[in-house]
Amino acid sequence: MWILSAAVATVGGQLLGADQAFTEVSSDSRVDCSGHLFIALRGEHFDGHDHVAAAQAAGAVAAMVDHPLPVDIPQWVVADTRLGLGQLAQRGGNVSLGASLRSPAATAKPRSRKCSRQSWRKSAGCWRLAAISTTTSECR
């Protein structure tokens, strides 16, 4: 479980609204988002910012956005939500993130710029970060 203010302090950005705890990370507002941080990703044919209210209605407790939105949900404002998601996964260390990429279009898995190996498991159509290792023996 993550505390939103701790995640903001670790990754950067600005927290607008109340601090919240979140258990997972989602980018698909069409699924049960109970307890999730919704990531408003942008793509060539979609903009997750258009779906923040739907994610909140589906149970999201906060949203990572690249600009403040006129919705009543705590917002973590970052310069780029895709990079913010990658940095959250990268800086999570060995703590359990419980993070999952819930977007059917999200097939790329964030990678660390330094030597590290991330273990991802696919479960029920979602990518879940199982562990991050930075030991030299595992960097090949």
Strand segment tally: 10
The CATH topology name reads Udp-n-acetylmuramoylalanyl-d-glutamate--2,6- Diaminopimelate Ligase, Chain: A, domain 1
* CATH architecture type: 3-Layer(aba) Sandwich
Distance between the termini: 30 Å
Mean pLDDT: 76
Our estimate of the beta-strand percent is 25-35%
CATH first level: Alpha Beta
Low-confidence stretches: 93-118, 122-127, 131-140
Overall shape: it is globular
Describe the protein's architecture and organization.
- The structure is a single chain.
- The chain has one domain (2-138): Udp-n-acetylmuramoylalanyl-d-glutamate--2,6- Diaminopimelate Ligase, Chain: A, domain 1 (3-Layer(aba) Sandwich).
- The chain has helices at 4-11, 52-57, 81-90; strands spanning 2-3, 14-16, 21-22, 24-26, 36-39, 62-65, 75-77, 100-101, 117-123, 126-133.
- It is 17% helix and 27% strand.
- The protein has 3 helices and 10 strands.
- A 5-stranded mixed β-sheet has the order 2-7-6-5-4.
- It is α/β, with parallel strands linked by helices.
- Residues 93-118, 122-127 and 131-140 have low confidence and may be disordered.
